[in-house]
């Protein structure tokens, strides 16, 4: 069992973020549990890479002196699995907003869906979604999006190392993607739909790996609290 000194000197904690939790809520749940358990007024704690509330999976959380490792961990290659829904788009590129347009899917074949992944391999230019936490003129993009403002977003270079379709049951297709820091899987969904001559949005997302860290070795925030012996109240 970790001691107070362990947490202060630095721990890397692997958390499996539940659906609809923000990454911030997950960090706060751990912070509360550690402080309560050891009677600490404060402890440094942070995560190495946000997950959207509608995504689940691996959050790497650093405590104490290990918070200095966060930039290095954020730069690691990430692996995701999930589902794209074809034949429609949403403004946020995921389920946060309602479907705004529908597109034909009759022309799609298993072969064309699998072949189209090749267009996205290697270094590509990707435009982040308007509904994202990136800042422009001091405001987060999603704040501007919700105000209905038109914003020009610059593309950025990212790298897709693997992009594999693992199941096709139209309108749904399951995927596995291995990619560089800064990749938006929602944008990949949107661009993939376009490349297929249809539309697509991200309907399910799970982060399975960050560098050598695997979600199979992670625990949920609730289990983390129970293991510390501080119950489940917040």
TrEMBL record:
<dbReference type="Pfam" id="PF01509">
    <property type="entry name" value="TruB_N"/>
</dbReference>
<comment type="similarity">
    <text>Belongs to the pseudouridine synthase TruB family. Type 1 subfamily.</text>
</comment>
<keyword id="KW-0413">Isomerase</keyword>
<dbReference type="GO" id="GO:0160148">
    <property type="term" value="F:tRNA pseudouridine(55) synthase activity"/>
</dbReference>
<dbReference type="InterPro" id="IPR032819">
    <property type="entry name" value="TruB_C"/>
</dbReference>
<dbReference type="InterPro" id="IPR014780">
    <property type="entry name" value="tRNA_psdUridine_synth_TruB"/>
</dbReference>
<protein>
    <recommendedName>
        <fullName>tRNA pseudouridine synthase B</fullName>
        <ecNumber>5.4.99.25</ecNumber>
    </recommendedName>
</protein>
<feature type="active site" description="Nucleophile">
    <location>
        <position position="52"/>
    </location>
</feature>
<feature type="domain" description="Pseudouridine synthase II N-terminal">
    <location>
        <begin position="36"/>
        <end position="185"/>
    </location>
</feature>
<comment type="function">
    <text>Responsible for synthesis of pseudouridine from uracil-55 in the psi GC loop of transfer RNAs.</text>
</comment>
<dbReference type="Pfam" id="PF16198">
    <property type="entry name" value="TruB_C_2"/>
</dbReference>
<dbReference type="InterPro" id="IPR002501">
    <property type="entry name" value="PsdUridine_synth_N"/>
</dbReference>
<keyword id="KW-0819">tRNA processing</keyword>
<feature type="domain" description="tRNA pseudouridylate synthase B C-terminal">
    <location>
        <begin position="186"/>
        <end position="219"/>
    </location>
</feature>
<dbReference type="InterPro" id="IPR020103">
    <property type="entry name" value="PsdUridine_synth_cat_dom_sf"/>
</dbReference>
């Amino acid at each position: 069992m970790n001691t107070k000194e362990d947490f202060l000197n630095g721990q890397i904690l692997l958390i499996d973020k539940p659906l609809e939790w923000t990454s911030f809520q997950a960090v706060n749940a751990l912070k509360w549990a550690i402080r309560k358990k050891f009677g600490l007024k404060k402890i440094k704690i942070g995560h190495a890479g946000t997950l959207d509330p509608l995504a689940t999976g691996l959050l790497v959380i650093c405590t104490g002196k290990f918070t200095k490792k966060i930039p290095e961990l954020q730069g690691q290659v990430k692996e995701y699995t999930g589902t794209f829904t074809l034949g429609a788009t949403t403004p946020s590129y995921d389920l946060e907003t309602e479907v705004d347009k529908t597109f034909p899917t009759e022309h799609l074949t298993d072969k064309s869906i699998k072949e189209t992944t090749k267009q996205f391999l290697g270094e590509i230019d990707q435009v982040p979604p308007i509904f994202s936490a990136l800042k422009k003129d001091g405001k987060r993009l999603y704040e501007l999006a919700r105000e209905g403002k038109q914003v020009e977003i610059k593309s950025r270079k990212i790298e897709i190392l693997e992009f594999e379709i693992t199941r096709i049951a139209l309108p749904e297709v399951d995927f596995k993607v291995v990619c560089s820091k800064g990749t938006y899987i929602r944008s990949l969904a949107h661009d993939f739909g376009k490349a297929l001559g249809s539309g697509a949005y991200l309907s399910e997302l799970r982060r399975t790996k960050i560098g050598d860290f695997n979600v199979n070795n992670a625990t949920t925030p609730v289990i983390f609290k129970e293991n510390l012996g501080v119950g489940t109240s917040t």
